[in-house]
Every structure is written in C-alpha cells, then in structure tokens.
Write a structure and sequence with these properties.
The complex is a heterotrimer of chains A (215), B (196) and C (374). In chain A, 83% of the residues lie in helices and 0% in strands. Chain A is an all-alpha fold and 215 residues long. The longest helix of chain A is centred in the middle third of the chain and has 35 residues, at 124-158. Chain B has 10 helices and no strands. Chain B has helices at residues 2-32, 34-48, 52-58, 60-63, 67-91, 95-103, 108-119, 121-141, 150-159, 163-191. The model of chain B has no long low-confidence stretch (mean pLDDT 89). Classes of the chains: A mainly alpha (215), B mainly alpha (196), C alpha/beta (374).
C-alpha cells in the first residue's frame, strides 16, 4: 500500500479527479431519483386507486428478480453505454419499492378511518388528499429510502459501463492495483451512501412519528 | 462457457449457503441476547446501504484478488438480508403464544423449534430469496477481482462492445437467479406450516 | 378433598399451602402489587377479583414466576418458589390465559400434547392422554384431534387450552380470566362445566376474574384486590357479611339484583327455635319439599310475626320486613323481596348452626347458608 499520509491521499484525489467524479456520480443519482419520484409516486397512487393495481406490482416484481448488474447490462443493446442505461436501470429497479410502498401506504390502514370520511360526505379525491395521503407518508418515505440505496448501488455499477462517476475510479483502482485509490474511493462512496440512507431514514422516522397510526 | 457457468454457480451459491447458515444462526443468537440484537440492527442498517461494488473493491487491499476473496465479498453482501429478515421474523412472534409457551415451561430451544421458527418461515425465505439474487449480481461483478465466471464473458463482450457477447454472459446469470428463486419458493411452500 | 399425586419430576407431591408474604411489584414507579400477603389452602379454588389494574393478574403470574416480585416471597409448601428449578416449576403448574395461545400451525392434539412432548414423554403415551383429555373437556376426539385452532370456535379453543394445561396432571392450576372473551351464554355453560370438573379434579386452583358472579359460583374463597393491595378475603358468605361496613367491598359485590345488601337494611332474626324446611317452588308443579339433608335454616318467628336477622358482631337492625304466618316458607318470604320473583336454586349444603348467614338474590343463583342465633 502507498503511504497513507494526508498528502498521499490528496494526491490520489486530484490525480484521479475524484471531485469531478463525485459530482458526476451525484448528478446521475439525483437525476435517477427525480425520475423515480416523478414516475413512481403517481404510479403508486394509480395502483392504489384502481382495481388492477396488483398487476403493476406483479410486473415490477419480475424486474426485481433480475440481478441489478444483469439489468444494467441488458439495457446496453437498447440504450448504449454510459449514463443512459445507468439511469434507466436505476429507475426501473427502484420503481418497485416506491410503487409498492405508496400503494400499500395509501390502502392499508384501519377501514373505519375511510368510513368516517365517507360518512362526512367526502369525495374520493378529498379522502385521498385528507386521509390517505398523510397517513401513507411514513410508508412512502420507507419506499423512497430503499430506492435511494438501490440507486446509489446502480450508479456505482454504472462506472464500469462508461457512465463515469465514482464506480469508474473504483474500477481503475482495482485494475491498476492502487490500494490507496481503492480505499479512498471505497470509503468515500460508503460515506456518501450511508449519509444518503441516514437522511432518508431520518425523514422516515420523523414522518412515522408525525403521521404514523400506531395503535 | 460451461466452465463459466459452473464457476458462477459455485461462487454465488457457496457464498450464499455460508451466509444463509451464518445469517440464520446469527439471528437466533440475536433473539437470545437482545443486547446483541440492537447492535446488529444498527450495524446491518449501515452496511446494507453501501453499494456491493464498493465492497468488492474494498476487499482487495485486505485479501487480494482471486476466488476466495470473491466468495468473501458474496458472503458479506448476502448475509445482511438474511440476518435482518430472520431476526425480525423470529422476534415478532405473537406475544400471546410466547406467554402461553413460557408458562408451559419451554426452554429457549424448544420455543425456537415449536413456536418461533415455524411461524417465521415466510420472512426467513423472503430474506433468503433476496440474498440469492444479490449473490448472482455480486458473482458477476467480482470478475474484476479475478473470479472468472460469467463476469468474464460479460467483460469480454463489454471491452469489444460486442452485444451478443454481453448477452451471453448476462442471460445465463438471469436464468440461474430465476431458477434459484423458484427453487427457494418451492422449498418455502413445502416447509410452510398449514393453518387450516 | 382428594389430591392427585403428581407424576415424578414435579417438585412436590401435592400442595398443602401457598403463601404470599408481603409481595410487591412495580412498573415504572407505579405499584401493580403492593405488600400483598395471602395464604391459599391446598385443594381450594380461590378467586382473585378486582377491577382493572388491581394487580390480580400480576399476582397470579408471580406464582409461576412469569413475573418476579420486587419484594416479598412466595412459598409453595413452605418452600420459596424462587428455589425451584424454573422450568420444572412451570411444568408442574397448569397455566390458562384469556387469549388461550394455541399454536396455529399445530393440530388440536399436537397442541394439547405439547407440554408432554417437551417433557420427553413417549408418543403413544401422549396420544393416549390427549384422547382422555379431549373427552374430559367434552370434545369428541375423533372429530377434533386433527383440526387446527383456526377452525375452532372460541369456546372450543378455550376447552383445548384447558386440556393442554391439565395434561401434565398438575396439582396447581393458574387461570387468568379464561372465560372472559366468550359471550355470556357460553360463559355460563363453561362455568358450570368447570364447576363439575373442579370437583372431580380436586386440585388447588387460583382463578382470576373480574366477574363477581363467576367468582361466587366457582370460588371456595374469594380475595378482593384493590389498587394492588389485598382488600378482603374470605368465603362468599364472609364477604357478603362484610359488605355492610365496607364501601369498596359493597361497590364490588353490591348489585341491584341483591337488593338486601347495601340498599335494604338487614333483618333482625332471633333464632332458633324450630326449623323450617326450604321448599323449592317449581313452576306449575306442586311444591316439593327440599331434601332434609340439603339446607337447614333455623328461624324463630316472634309473636308479632315479623322476621328479623342478626349478624354476628353487628348491632341489630330492625326492619319490619313483611308479615307472614307460620306456614309461609322462608323462600316465599324472600321471593316477595325480589322484583322478579324468580326461580331459586339451593346450592350450599348443610353446615352447623352458628355459621354466618347470607342471602344472595339473583336470577338463578340463590344461596342459603346458615342462620346465626342471636
């Protein structure tokens, strides 16, 4: 192993342009998350309100059974290499937790709460907005948290197939046998991942306390 | 090609079996000593958010490259779902049943055998099925640390940007993952106790 | 009363006494049980009654050490329960809870046989005993042995729970509101069946309930717990008598179906000169005289033809209740009191003159005990 001095570490950092790579990485991650939320949440709501909701979930379940690297690679013939398959794979893979949790969150709680709403003369839309939505937030947050973890993983993998980002630095470290690079990048990704997950976890816990219906 | 498939299965599933055993055993211990359980819960939560590829890379400075380090990576990445799901399954048995069984004078092992374990089959297998899929994914990615297998086939295809080559590696991996999943769900159905 | 000898492996052969000495238990700074001392006699059924939070369930659970007391000791046959091997203790005590706790994935016979299976008893022996116990709780073995708990009604499940508790032939049975989750008719049915069973079993039973009538029906003695303390303990009649001066007790036991307690002042009967035989009226039938061995009430009818009663140690309270002739039976006299004028059942058997006198008027439950001479 090369010397683990501060100087050594910062040398590795600049040599392999880790700052740039970090930004690319976060960019990919953020883009994926936005698309996931934009598609997943409405899809979850539709699945909850329609009777065919389980079909959507079943289809997504099948996607889950494919190992994530395999999904990523399968997309290459379709979208080429680089950012496109990475973001697509991240979105596809993370849709299930978001859709499933949103659907469950909107539909599974004490039926008497809905009855009260109906007896007050609320429309379906009002029930959705005033009763179902707030009570579903903890579960939805849980689903988003899982999506965060999945997406971080896939974006990291994307480095192998040309999406750049920190995964590429990891790969470089392995192929060039540069332990310092591996350790620096690896720990850095780990920190980022744990940080993202913790933030999502805090939101989940906060929403659970505020809106969770605990008997 | 057959060699690659065999290497893949060996790598993924030897790791899987070891982590399944360790995970279930660890969960039983976690139920026995609840102080350990809190530690495990927070620790595993942390580790689970780290991308698998990072773990693949991080093992190199410590264990080098080759088949054995690859298996270690498979174990580390697959043990967490099993451990978490099994612990949750074993510890969320209906408290009324625990009360009645304790009053009968059951030991911890008897409680596990007659009450907790049979009623936790579904969560345990959920964890196992998830782990099995992760094992396949990691087994492909570990090509970078010299494990051969289907990852090598894929890599060759990638490097030359030759789509059929990529697919030749990916499709068998998917097939293996799906077959294992179906097998596990069959085993679950067989083991699952009947309530009617 | 007959005691069954326990199987080898239990810490005692039969129970002579259970002592709770100044037992206390608190949770989060609040007392669940506070300085409770109680002696339970071998072979009796003692009912622990009280409101929610009175500590009766906690007390029960301290006996088989499901809960450990913070202070005080519990002794069975003079030996502290803490000195017995924990699982050996629990295997010698039958434990029945309100929610029953049948394992949903095991059949009825597997559930009943489970305590024996844990103890390593041979499979054939287990099978034999399970069949016997199913019959004991009035369930046809052929029909029920292979069913799963989910297929059973609440009453059937509770019978299975009892069978499971009895299969190890315990000499002590702990029951925590076993009939509480059942509907009133079913509860009545099971209470009466259990009463019969209790006589056949002849073991020590500690029975927690919030239902006063259930306690009176089943209990040889009753202990009232209030806010974690033992408020009163005694036989049915002793407690009824004590309600006169005890507001908490009368709150618990007093009932508008028992008009003479709490609302109607006690009579003043000076006793005894002759004896009446209780006549049991049956609707539409000529009056039959009760068996002379059954109940004897010794009452004196003074010249002014009024009925009085005195209770030991209490100042005489007089109340010209009603007038009757020598021919009027006590029963008729009393039934004039009840608004419903309902059927009467004689339950207690004869005891010697001088024992306390109490009358409870309820729809179908009326106990006559003995008059006390003034």
């Amino acid at each position: 192993m090369t010397e683990m001095t501060v100087a050594g570490l910062s040398a590795v950092w600049t040599q392999y342009q880790l700052t740039t790579l970090t930004l690319i990485h976060l960019n990919l991650f953020g883009t994926a998350m936005i698309i996931i939320l934009a598609i997943g949440l409405p899809l979850g709501i539709i699945a909850a309100m329609s009777s065919r909701g389980y079909l959507i979930v079943s289809v997504l379940n099948i996607i889950e059974m494919i190992p994530d690297i395999a999904l990523l690679l399968l997309l290459i013939p379709v979208t080429g290499i680089g950012a496109a398959p990475t973001i697509t794979a991240a979105v596809l893979y993370s849709l299930l937790p978001v859709v499933r949790n949103t659907m469950t969150g909107l539909t599974s709680f004490r039926p008497e709460l809905i009855e009260i709403g109906e007896s007050l003369g609320m429309t379906r839309g009002e029930i959705l907005r005033i009763i179902r939505f707030p009570l579903s937030l903890p579960l939805v947050a849980g689903g988003i948290r899982i999506a965060v973890v999945y997406s971080m993983g896939i974006v990291t993998l994307g480095g192998i197939i040309g999406a750049r980002g920190l995964g590429a630095a990891l790969q470089a470290g392995i192929t060039r046998n540069n332990m310092t690079l591996i350790l620096v990048t690896g720990l850095w990704i780990g920190l980022l991942a744990v940080f993202m997950d913790s933030v999502a976890g805090l939101c989940e816990r906060f929403l659970s306390k505020k809106y969770g219906d605990r008997p | 090609m057959p060699v690659a498939i065999w290497q893949h299965i060996t790598l993924a599933y030897s790791g899987f079996f070891i982590s399944a055993c360790l995970g279930i055993f660890g969960a039983i211990i976690a139920v026995r000593w609840s102080s350990l359980r809190v530690l495990l819960q927070s620790g595993s939560s942390l580790l689970q958010s780290i991308p698998a590829f990072t773990i693949v890379a991080l093992v190199v400075p410590f264990l080098g490259i080759g088949f054995v380090p690859a298996v270690v990576v498979v174990i580390v990445t697959t043990i967490l779902p099993v451990l978490r799901n099994t612990t949750i399954g074993l510890s969320s048995t209906d408290p009324v049943l625990i009360d009645a069984s304790t009053g009968m004078g059951m030991t911890f092992c008897q409680m596990m055998r007659f009450v907790r374990f049979p009623l936790a089959i579904h969560p345990i297998f959920s964890g196992l099925r998830l782990s099995s899929i992760v094992a396949n994914s990691v087994a492909v990615v570990t090509v970078f640390i010299g494990s051969g297998g289907l990852g090598a086939v894929v890599l060759e295809g990638l490097v030359r940007y030759h789509t059929p080559g990529i697919l030749a590696g990916v499709l068998p991996a998917i097939f293996i993952a799906l077959s294992a999943d179906i097998l596990l769900s069959r085993i679950e159905r067989y083991l699952k106790p009947r309530y009617q | 009363m007959p005691q069954t000898l326990a199987k080898s492996g239990t810490p005692w052969d039969y129970i002579t006494s259970i002592h709770l000495d100044s037992v206390s238990k608190s949770y989060n700074g609040a007392y669940a049980v506070r300085d409770l001392s109680l002696t339970i006699k071998g072979g009796e059924l003692i009912a622990l009654i009280g409101g929610s939070g009175s500590g009766k369930t906690t007390t029960l659970r301290m006996i088989n050490r499901m809960v450990e007391p913070d202070a005080g000791t519990i002794r069975i046959n003079e030996i502290p329960v803490s000195s017995f091997h924990l699982r050996s203790l629990r295997r010698s005590i039958g434990y029945v809870i309100q929610q029953i706790g049948l394992l949903p994935h095991l059949s009825v016979s597997d559930n009943i046989g489970l305590p024996l299976r844990i103890a390593g008893v041979h499979r054939d022996e287990i099978h034999r005993r399970v069949q016997a116990l199913l019959s004991l709780v009035r369930l046809d073995p052929v029909v029920f042995q292979n069913r799963k708990p989910a297929e059973l009604s609440g009453g059937q499940q509770q019978r299975i729970g009892l069978a499971r508790a009895l299969i190890t032939e315990p000499t002590l049975l702990l029951m925590d509101e076993p009939f509480g989750a059942l509907d009133p008719l079913l509860r009545r049915e099971l209470q009466h069946e259990f009463l019969e069973l209790k006589k056949d079993l002849g073991i020590t039973i500690i029975f927690v309930t919030h239902d006063i009538h259930e306690a009176f029906l089943l209990g040889d003695r009753i202990a009232l717990l209030h806010e974690g303390r033992l408020h009163a303990v005694g036989t049915v009649s002793e407690l009824i008598l004590a309600t006169q001066d005890d507001p908490i007790l009368s709150y618990f036991i007093g009932d508008d179906r028992m008009p003479y307690i709490g609302t109607v002042p006690a009579w003043n009967i000076s006793l005894p000169v002759g004896s009446f035989q209780i006549r049991r009226p049956e609707p539409g039938q000529p009056e039959k005289e009760a068996e002379s061995s059954e109940v004897k009430v010794i009452i004196h009818c003074p010249e002014n033809q009024q009925m009085y009663a005195t209770f030991p140690g209490k100042t005489a309270k007089t109340m010209p209740v009603l007038s009757f002739t020598h021919d009027t039976s006590v029963l008729e006299a009393l039934s004039a009191f009840t608004k419903s004028g309902s059927n009467v059942a004689v339950i207690e058997t004869a005891e010697s003159p001088g024992s306390p006198f109490a009358v409870i008027l309820q729809d179908s439950l009326l106990r006559y005990l003995f008059g006390h001479p003034s």
